[in-house]
Amino acid sequence: MSVATTDATTAGPPQKKAPKKAGLEHRPGLRRWLPYALLAPAVVLELFIHIVPMLVGIWVSFVKLTRIYIANWSQAPGAGLGNYKVAIDFDNAVGEGLLKSFGVTIVFSLVTVGLSWVLGMAAAVALQPAFRGRNLVRTLFLVPYALPAYAGILTWNFMLQRDTGAVNHVLNQLHLTSDRPFWLIGGNALAALITVATWKLWTFAFLTLMAGLQSIPNELYEAASVDGAGNLRQWRNITLPQLRPVNLVLVLVLFLWTFSDFNTPYVLFGTAQPPAGDLITFHIYNASFLTWNFGTGAAMSVLLLIFLMIVTGIYLLVTGRRSRRA
Amino acid sequence: MRLRSLVAAVAATALGVSLAACGGSDSGSDGGSGGDQTLTYWASNQGTSLDNDKQVLTPVLEKFTQETGIKVNLEVIGWNDLQTRIQTAVTSGQAPDVVNIGNTWAASLQATGAFLPFDADALTAIGGKDKFVPTALATGGKEGEDPTSVPLYGLAYGLYYNKAMFAAAGLQPPKTWEEMVSAAQKLTNPAKNQWGMALAAGSYTENVHFAFINGAQNKSDWFDGEGKPTFTTDGNVQGVLRYLDLMQKDKVANPSNAQYDNGTKSVNDFATKKVAMVINQNNADSSIVANGMKAGEYGVVPFPAPAGGEQVASHVAGINLSVFKNTKHKESALKFVKYMTDAGTQTTLGKPFASLPVLKDAKPVFTTDAAEAAIFQDIYNTKSKPLPLVPAEDQFESTVGKAMNNMFAKIATGGTVSADEVKAALKTAEDQVAAGS
Question: Which homologous superfamily is B157-315+392-436 in?
Answer without folding.
Answer: Periplasmic binding protein-like II (3.40.190.10)
